[in-house]
Specification:
Chains A, B: ATP binds at residues 225-227, 234, 488, 540-543. The structure is a homodimer of 595-residue chains. Helices cover 28% and strands 25% of the residues of chain A. With 595 residues, the first copy, chain A, is an alpha+beta fold. Chain A has three domains: 13-109, Nucleic acid-binding proteins (OB fold (Dihydrolipoamide Acetyltransferase, E2P)); 143-279 and 432-557, BirA Bifunctional Protein, domain 2 (2-Layer Sandwich); 297-423, Gyrase A, domain 2 (2-Layer Sandwich). In chain A, the strands form five sheets. Chain A has an eight-stranded mixed sheet with strand order 6-9-10-22-21-20-17-11, with helices on both faces. Chain A has a five-stranded mixed barrel with strand order 1-2-3-5-4. A five-stranded antiparallel sheet of chain A has the order 12-13-16-14-15. In chain A, strand 20 (479-484) and strand 21 (487-494) form a beta hairpin. Chain A starts with 23 loop residues before the first strand and ends in a 6-residue tail after the last strand. At the A-B interface, strand 1, helix 3, helix 4, strand 6 and strand 7 of A face strand 1, helix 3, helix 4, strand 6 and strand 7 of B.
Chain lengths: 595, 595
């Protein structure tokens, strides 16, 4: 094998253009393709910048030509040569106007035949891609994703730094807090029998930084949750984490809108309009059945409970009581698109979200076609059509149930209809704030209240009295989520900064004062020494980058992700530990408990 | 308590200058000090930007005046007022030319008397500072340190990004590699009985990124080592981690010199000269007895083994054999500074580094004064003086022993002498490359070779044959450390990129092929598919920032450090875990093994 001694790369292969003609260049990269044609050897040399065609001509250099003839796929080479205009141009690649006639070649390393092809449209399964991730990452699309991710992080950092935010690193080995998601634990060797946790977020540290007067903090930081994995979850994920003092909701939202505007401009060259629309949680549920609605298309819910409260169709009429509703969506002009079979398919979908059924009506020239039409009077049908704004050719879909079931199931039907009709324009980026979230949700299993965001979220001022009353579910939070095309990409709140309110919050969550003190005593203590009003927000970087890259799942924008069993198949992590390691940590594996 | 509703901070208190006179400002921060004087209330308001004097005058606003009278230390306030020129200026603070007459004040939060004073020269012990870190971080110096740290990180990121480096996040939950330092382990719940490790560095991932063609990678990233803590060690620490493909040592050093030049310019406004001096490991040991010499002062070693090989002083003469030496330093003109007692003190210091003694000679007008002078002939004494470049008034100090003991003990004596004489100019930044490190060190305890840097470091080309020979300790590595004022602030190497050489390296380290495969099989596999020549470097950010900040230990530049027992006394981490958590993780605490 040759060395690069005395050779220095002049530029990326993919950067060469007509302007470079006549230039002497040194390129280094991988053999994408080699072919012999008309007594010449043509090599596509690939590097991070793209691909350029290299030509080896026996008349230019006999030794280079002979070496080039022996090249295989993915060999690593360095070439020195001159840029020429191509005879037959290739408009499919950016360097298609030129080619480089090589005067020298060095073979820096050889390659066995790789187990996956190095091209974007290779259809190999994800298991193989993850096992050979270092080859998968040679694909131009994956490299583009990683570079886009780096660019987003860089834009974010510079924007926040320019706005007086100070990046501060918070610890990774912290105190376990058995609240919210499951912690990853780390046994301490020096303190036998004790454990650190990996942070689920830097929440408490960033609040303490506000107590310390650091005033505007940010961090792009790994966080950890030991949850069962879904398609878009990873055991470790990255947050853009921000916190500010002396602010209210509007200040936080304004600065974050500026950040997103900057990201879209610098990364995608797209202008997005600020301020973003805002919607309360109640409005979002009422209109879309979701706190993260995709607003690229309509299909908004209409609540017809009042219209049908006395109708002859019992299923509908009974849902006029409190906490229940009948809601519908009007799929304008698509009555003919949805066959009975297609509607049954939607109904099945609704049922997986606990709906008992999906009622439908088609508005035809002959009137309403529907299996349930017979239960309604003509007037009732007309009233329904009016309420739904329905005209001939429209399809109406209804769910009647508890509000929570209606939201869930009809919300999913809405998404499925939009998918079928391709209503979600992939080129559109709809950003939206959702505000006034409930402070509490009911944990029905354990019969208690849990914090919808987290226990440090401040209730709205006008609701704060309810913290000790019976109306807890109506308590609204000074919390806000930012939604992009149906994904929650970030969320935050104004925090509690009064030790007394914080204590009440812990009590409302069912923590005794002693428990609260054991877990969060240092925060309550800190709050006694002059805590400024403060609030912040955290973005999920993985998901944001996924959406910016137009990728289908977050593993496409993470260099070395885990699979759905939290395993890295490339390195085979996790593995058994050596017994002396465990002994030093004062722990033992105890499998029998589980089996 | 008041809210900030309708109020928006206009600027930091510390930013106000004469130019601002007449300006209406809104400031928010903490009460540093309050005093009543001549019917007025004066408040020093402190925020991240500094301190400004606020004046409350009953005639300007009665209600504000009355509220101000009740303020206590560390209360959080917002004030609206107008900037005036001060009558009696205070040249000790940047805002000393102005004061703000307050028209409105809001008390945003109260404070109990804090357990530590919020001022730089508070002499409270570190234990209390760490327990109340959120108060300790209110000190201007600590805030300055954190801001300096953020600035360093920002300069680094922008420099590397401008130079085509792509920031890529590598995983935190990785495969344990029981080599080098001790891993922190993380039990996997989903894979019972198996463990992840927290990374000691992203070494293998960054090399795999080079295999993937990402070509120029960097990351500012937390790393973890479960070692017993020293003054300048933390369980988690931050690395500036870089790797490049298609480069040799000079390329890496050049780009890193540019980075340091930029840091010093932008952070300290200091011009440092590049390229930095270079010294081989052998030269550094020979001259300073250290691979991280402080070159701000001389006191260089002189090897007088040849001069004394036949002298009458047995201790010296016997050290002429191979692997032993007699080395001295000349403390020019300081013979009178060092009393017998001071020299005894130095000797004791030398003995803690295994020296049997510290020989000394003072050159006086009457000749050589020394307890060992009698063992030498006049000619021998003259020869020694000549070799040492000694003149009247100089003090000569010698250690005779195995080279390794001479290096260690005389190196420490050199530092102690420099400390006593204040030779290390705190305003001087001496950067230095140390190169050609040995590949192996002997692990005398276990009778085997271990890698001085790590097993992925490439041997020098001309030495590569020794990898399989008996002369392993003479094998030099393509490794380089960067040294600043006696601290190693970074280190790196050109890596092995040939699977066969890597296999030989593992064998040389005593790993069987099976062990090597179990631990590093994926790397050996990756190397078969076209690995480019590559190398890199990692800086210790904590230590670099410590030196730039002129701080005494790294805890001064870390927001929330652990103490020497790896405990966070603020939060009380680590703690006992709940038994159901451990059960889910299939582990048990087993303390009896240790006690």
């Amino acid at each position: 094998m040759d060395t690069i001694k005395g050779m220095k790369r002049t530029c990326y292969a993919g950067s060469l253009r007509l302007d470079d003609i006549g230039r002497e260049v040194v390129l280094m990269g991988w053999v994408q393709k080699k072919r012999n044609l008309g007594g010449l050897v043509f090599v596509d040399l690939r590097d991070r910048g793209g691909i350029a065609q290299i030509v080896f001509d026996n008349d230019v250099s006999k030794s280079a030509f002979e070496k080039a003839e022996k090249l295989g796929s993915e060999y690593v080479i360095a070439i020195r040569g001159k840029v020429f205009e191509r005879q037959s141009k290739n408009s499919n690649i950016p360097t298609g106007d030129i080619e480089v006639f090589a005067e020298e070649i060095r073979v820096l390393n050889e390659s066995q035949t790789p187990p996956i092809y190095i091209k974007d449209d290779d259809e190999v399964g994800e298991a193989l891609r993850l096992k050979y991730r270092y080859l998968d990452l040679r694909k131009p699309k994956m490299q583009k994703n990683l570079m886009l991710r780096a660019k987003v992080a860089n834009v974010v950092r510079n924007y926040l730094t320019d706005n007086d935010f100070c990046e501060i690193e918070t610890p990774f080995l912290i105190k376990p807090t058995p609240e919210g998601a499951r912690d990853y634990l780390v046994p301490s060797r020096v303190n036998p029998g004790k454990f650190y946790a990996l942070p689920q977020s830097p929440q408490l540290y960033k609040q303490l930084l506000m107590v310390s007067g650091m005033d505007r903090y940010f961090q792009i930081v790994k966080c950890f949750r030991d949850e069962d994995l879904r398609a878009d979850r990873q055991p470790e994920f990255t947050q853009i984490d921000c916190e500010m003092s002396f602010v209210d909701e509007n200040d936080v939202m304004e600065i974050m809108e500026g950040m997103l505007k900057k990201i879209f401009k610098e990364v995608l060259d797209r202008d997005i309009v600020t301020p973003f629309p805002r919607m309360t949680f109640a409005q979002a549920m009422d209109k879309y059945g979701s706190d993260k609605p995709d607003t690229r298309y309509g299909l908004e819910f209409v609540n017809i409970s009042d219209v049908v409260k006395n109708c002859g169709f019992k299923v509908f009429a009974e849902c006029a009581k409190e906490g229940y509703s009948v809601r519908g969506i009007n799929v304008v002009g698509e009555a003919d698109t949805f066959t009975r079979k297609a509607i049954t398919h939607l109904e099945d979908h609704a049922k997986t979200y606990k709906a008992k059924g999906l009622a439908w009506m088609k508005i035809t020239d002959e009137g309403v076609t529907s299996p349930i039409a017979k239960f309604f009077s003509e007037e009732e049908l007309t009233n329904i059509q009016n309420a739904m704004g329905a005209k001939t050719g429209d399809l109406l879909l209804f769910v009647a149930d508890k509000d929570s079931v209606v939201y869930d199931s009809l919300g999913q039907v809405r998404i499925a209809v939009a998918d079928k009709l391709n209503l979600a324009d992939p080129d559109k980026f709809n950003l939206l704030w959702v505000t006034e979230f409930p402070v509490f949700e009911e944990d029905e299993e354990n019969g208690r209240f849990i914090a919808k965001h987290h226990p440090f979220t401040s209730p709205m001022e006008e609701d704060i009295d309810k913290l000790e009353g019976d109306d807890k579910l109506k308590l609204r939070a000074r919390a806000y989520d930012i939604v992009l095309n149906g994904y929650e990409i970030g969320g935050g709140s104004i925090r509690i900064s009064d030790a007394k309110v914080q204590e009440k919050m812990f009590r409302a969550l069912g923590l005794s004062d002693e428990e609260a003190n054991n877990k969060f005593g240092y925060l309550l203590e800190a709050f006694k020494f002059g805590t400024p009003p403060h609030g912040g927000l955290a973005f999920g970087l993985d998901r944001l980058v996924m959406l910016l890259a137009g990728a289908e799942n977050i593993r496409e924008v993470i260099a070395f992700p885990k699979n759905q069993n939290a395993v890295c198949t490339m390195t085979n992590a996790p593995t058994e530990a050596e017994s002396n390691q465990l002994e030093e940590l004062s722990i033992r594996v105890s499998l029998e408990d589980k089996e």
